Amino acid sequence: MPEHIQARVEACYQQAETFFKRPFPRPQVCFKLRGQKAGVAHLSENKLRFNPQLYRENREDFLKQTVAHEVAHLVAHQLFGPKIQAHGEEWQLIMRGVYELPPHRCHSYAVKRRPVSRFIYLCSCPDGEFPFSAQRHALVSKGRSYYCRRCRKTLVFSGHQRTE
């Protein structure tokens, strides 16, 4: 898997070098990205991170569009400096002119969401049920209080949790 992405990164850089008639330093490429993002360009570090799960599920489009998208961020940064907008006209110029691809800001890959636990807190209102994240529930156990905006009573853990 990494070799296909590495090869596409190199091909994108060669296209940019031919187009702009100048060399670009190659980035560090890693495959430790999870969640909803397909790729991330770390501009000041000259680093690219890719999501291996989304690559496995969307190989063809990922190699064509996502890799070029992230390389275009680094090329735009190196050409035009740090003050340009992430998906502004400079980046769009590279996507259209160099890679001949549509400058889509976001991917449309199906992303499987992990199930999350919700801790149910209650107040005295008739429909006063508040699902808390694990992080917020932990803050309550450390002494933080949360209040209902309607009845102004302290929310109390019901002892129940559910998975969403």
* Percent of sequence in beta strands: 15-25%
**What series of H and E elements makes up the topology?**
HEEEHHHEEHE
Q: Note the total helix count.
A: 5
Instruction: Look at the helices and sheets and give the structural class.
Output: alpha+beta
Strand order of the largest sheet: 1-3-2
Fraction of residues in helix: 25-40%
CATH topology name of the largest domain, in short, is Zincin-like
The largest β sheet comes out as: 3 strands, mixed
Which regions are unreliable across 5 or more consecutive residues at pLDDT < 50? none
Q: On the 0-100 scale, what is the average pLDDT? A: 94
User: What is the CATH class designation of the largest domain?
Assistant: Alpha Beta
The number of domains is 2
Radius of gyration: 23 Å
CATH homolog superfamily of the largest domain: Metalloproteases ("zincins"), catalytic domain
What is the total tally of β strands?
6
Structure description:
- By secondary structure, this protein is an alpha+beta fold.
- It has two domains: 97 residues, Metalloproteases ("zincins"), catalytic domain (Zincin-like, 2-Layer Sandwich), CATH 3.30.2010.10; 47 residues, no CATH class.
- It is built from five helices and six strands.
- Strands 1-3-2 form a three-stranded mixed beta sheet, covered by helices on one side.
- The chain starts with a helix and ends with a strand.
- The relative contact order is 0.12.
Keywords:
metalloprotease; SprT_Zn_ribbon; alpha+beta; 5 helices; SprT-like_domain; 40% helix; Zincin-like; 2 domains; 3-stranded antiparallel beta sheet; metallopeptidase activity
